[in-house]
Amino acid sequence: MVESPNTFDEMLRAIDDPRTPYDAYYKWFSQENVKDLMRKSQQAEDFFRKIGITFNVYGQEEAQERLIPFDIVPRIIAAREWKQLERGIEQRVRAINAFLHDIYHRQEIIRAGRVPKELIATNEAYLPEMIGVNPPGGVYTHIVGTDLVRTGENEFFVLEDNARTPSGVSYMLENRETMLQMFPELFPKLKVRPVSSYPQLLRRSLANCAPDGTQGKPTVAVLTPGIHNSAYFEHAFLADQMGAELVEAHDLRVENGKVAMRTTQGYQAIDVLYRRVDDEYLDPLTFNPESMLGVPGIMDVYRAGGITIANAPGTGIADDKALYSYMPDIVEFYTGERAILKNVPTYRCSEDDSLKYVLENLAELVVKEVHGSGGYGMLVGPAASRKELSEFEKKLRARPSNYIAQPTLALSTVPILTKAGLAPRHVDLRPFVLVSPNKIDIVPGGLTRVALKKGSLVVNSSQGGGTKDTWVLGD
User: Which one of 129, 256, 340, 409 counts the least CB within 10 Å of its CB?
Assistant: First the structure.
């Protein structure tokens, strides 16, 4: 059952020897019939299909819309472990917010020599249009998804920061709803902390970031690119759960210094816009003039303080994987403390010595595009063929600054249910963080993504991964 001596199995120390967080669950599971549990698994799949929990896969002609595989064995995190993660995540998110304010204002971190100027100035995610802009409440990153991996008992690493438009929270909520329906008796027995308050917390957090001078209850809307976007289910789900309007570009216009949405009673001003549209397409008058997904003039309204855009334009630079390698310095610079959560050692291929090392050790490393996401454009060296290694070497030599490389970590495993019983698979975790002017909320849990292929380290749904419910135990 345990995959290898070098892999940390989160459930078991050895065969039939569960770790403390899993003790009660393992005893329950041992008394269950695997065939009955497989039927439950099929019921969960039918439920997901019925309500349309799907995602789109770009660049493939067949089966573009897919069901996200869901595994009914939960990932369980002890209260003690979660408290440590919470502290580290909050510290990191505060530092990211301070960093974003700094690079769009005085750039003290560059003057101090802690981050190279060219990494900011030449970065495609850095928006000169945001220089000197003060977002309402001083918040840049209203919603953050911090991707974590585990390698040992008390060893957690941040794999990447998602400060632009992190997705996946709807799957976290639906996973929990499904598990509550199938195994209601387990939640009080194990004292599993709830996650159902997320939509209400999101609504409150966004409302608390409304522009100065907002009258009465702030009007919140979710801007979606439309039904063909890979995360459209989530956009519609969150708008519905928050009691907010779901709008597309053709529903909006600028009038009287505000962004207004079309309603049956005419146009109504919006105070907070939770946008799920990338910076490039947000305003055709400021960015891409061919964009049909944004609102002409919205950046002028934003700069004048007439609307809150969540997350703020220009936050994408915090997702940059080359900048990620400086995060320990960034955390220390803005908090005065050493980073609680560790970074994965990272080689910046833009640097000659690092590039030389990466090229010489390509078969042992994971290489990623600095602006990549969804598992696209990356190389997992140990799993790559000679041809794939050769082709990737050409890409690296052609555009070294477009890549970073990291050692292949022995990611922890959590069991999945198979016809033969439990089998270990590698996982990561994306907790969701909500930021308002005086408060940071972290929902106890997050989205656990699981590599369903035996031995695979790639957990992204676009690359064949699935999801699990994440149970954080109470004290």
Answer: 256
Instruction: Assess if residue 149 is contained within a domain.
Output: yes
How many CB atoms lie under 10 A from the CB of residue 16? Answer: 9
Least confident of 122-131, 146-155, 252-261, 376-385: 376-385
Task: Give, in order, the Cα–Cα distances in Å from 406 to each of 369, 421, 457.
Answer: 12, 34, 13
pTM strictly above 0.85: yes
Mean pLDDT of 357-376: 84
The last residue of one of the domains, among 407, 424, 457, is: 407
Closest by alpha carbon to 279, among 248, 247, 245, 314? 314
Q: List beta partners, residue 298.
A: none
What CA–CA distance (Å, rounded) separates 395 from 397? 6
Tell which residue, 418, 424, 427, has the closest CA to residue 77: 427
Q: So what's the pLDDT on residue 58?
A: 46
> What are the distances in angstroms from CA 20 to CA 77, 90, 123?
10, 26, 46
Q: pLDDT tens for residues 292-350?
A: 999 999 999 999 999 999 999 999 999 988 899 999 999 999 999 999 999 999 999 98
Location of structure tokens 């009080």: 188
Determine whether 149 is exposed, middle or buried from the number of CB atoms within 10 Å of its CB (0-12, 13-18, 19+).
buried
Q: Are residues 228 and 256 in the same domain?
A: yes
402 lies in the same domain as 418: no
* DSSP code for 9: B
Asked whether 401 and 387 are in contact (CB, 8 A), the reply is no
> How far is the C-alpha of 274 from the C-alpha of 224, rounded, in Å?
9
Residue labelled with tokens 């070294």: 400
Instruction: Report yes or no on 5 lying in a domain.
Output: no
Please check whether residues 167 and 184 belong to one and the same domain: yes
Return the C-alpha torsion angle 159, 160, 165, 169, nearest 10: 20
Last residue of a domain, one of 379, 407, 435: 407
Same domain, 333 and 243: yes
Q: Pick the closest to residue 201 from 440, 404, 424, 36 (CA basis).
A: 440
445 & 372 share domain = no
Domain assignment present for 244:
yes
**Segment (H or E) for 40:** helix 34-51
- How does pLDDT run across 422-465, given as a tens digit for each residue? 999 999 999 999 999 999 999 999 999 999 888 888 787 666 78
In angstroms, rounded to a whole number, what is the distance separating the alpha carbons of residues 111 and 99?
13
Domain of residue 155: give its range: 12-344+409-472
Distance between CA atoms of 359 and 378, rounded to whole angstroms? 15
